[in-house]
Amino acid sequence: MFDVNANATQRPVSVPKPVDRNHAWQFEPCGECCVILVFDTVFSIERNRQAAAAANALRHLKRQGLLPGITDVVAAMVTVGVHYSPMAFAAQYPHTSPFQAVCELLSASLNQPVAGTTAPAKRVEIPVCYEAEYAPDLEQVADACSLSVKQLIDAHTAHWLDVLMMGFAPGHPYIGLHSEALAVPRRSVPRTQVRKGSIGIANQQSVIYPADLPGGWNLVGLTPLNLFSPNDDVPCLLKGGDQVRFTAISRREFDVLAQGEAL
After folding, report:
1. What phi, psi does 93 have (nearest 5°)?
2. What range(s) does the Carboxyltransferase domain occupy (predicted)?
3. Residues near 210 by beta carbon (within 8 Å), at least 6 away in sequence
4. How many helices and strands in the chain, by DSSP H and E?
5. How many CA atoms lie within 13 A of 81 on its CB side?
6. Cα-Cα end-to-end distance for the chain
7. What is the DSSP string of 103-155?
8. Residue 215 CB partners (closer than 8 Å, separation 6+)
9. pLDDT tens for residues 47-85?
10. How far apart are CA 191 and CA 216, in angstroms?
11. Would you say 98 and 82 are in contact if contact means Cβ atoms under 8 Å apart?
12. Range with the lowest mean pLDDT among 16-20, 41-45, 233-237?
């Protein structure tokens, strides 16, 4: 097994630390092949957006071939995991440890503007049919929130929301934050199968199931959109840092859009 500290005695290099209060992250090692950029230890929209922006910038640089040795970039709620090849970094930077070299590369990359990553967040409208046959938990959620079904739908479609992260399954977004009125917990007993396209809600967030999957979120609607197409150049419809707004559609509109998605 490769020792990430094997070369550290040749030229000690301090791991980069925040230089002032404007420095957004700290580094934490995660095994011998990954470093975590930690933007906070508790969730906030501000820190989530910083993490998403950093991840998108690093992915952009990786596509440009400017991060040799970096193998993957994975954003979470307030952290970013950067996977790397220790052997590649040991070859490039023989006088320091791969972990330290990765930290220095990431600091240099993120402490300067990254061309092509300053565009406004991509906005995507997600059509949702809230008819009862597509929303088995809608009335129960409305009751739990002390709202009518119409009020719940109005609240769910009221604002543009952030794609907080992708996870659980390919193409599966976590979206929020909704108003505090929609702070219902997840189901006590998860379903063994949830239909592809189902919209789940819990803890002021929504998710969209990209395939038939098990899940414990409260199901309040169904979208005809396809969120994950593995054969496409860009397989996921959404990514962290995008923005989403749910829009209510009728059953007839759902059928028309579903037919188009199937073509």
Report:
1. -130, 75
2. 25-238
3. 169, 170, 171, 172, 196, 226, 227, 228
4. 6, 13
5. 14
6. 49
7. HHHHHHHHTS--TT--SPPPEEEEEEE--GGG-TTHHHHHHHTT--HHHHHHH
8. 190, 191, 194, 198, 200, 207, 209
9. 999 999 999 999 999 999 999 999 999 999 999 999 999
10. 6
11. no
12. 16-20
Q: What is the DSSP letter of 185?
A: P
Instruction: Return the residue matching tokens 């690093």.
Output: 58
Contact 9, 97 (CB under 8 A): no
For β-strands 123-129 and 70-75, DSSP reports them as unpaired
Count Cα neighbours of 131 within 13 Å in the Cβ-side half-sphere.
12
Q: Tokens 């989403």 label which residue?
A: 244
Which residue, 217, 192, 210, 202, is CA-closest to 136?
217
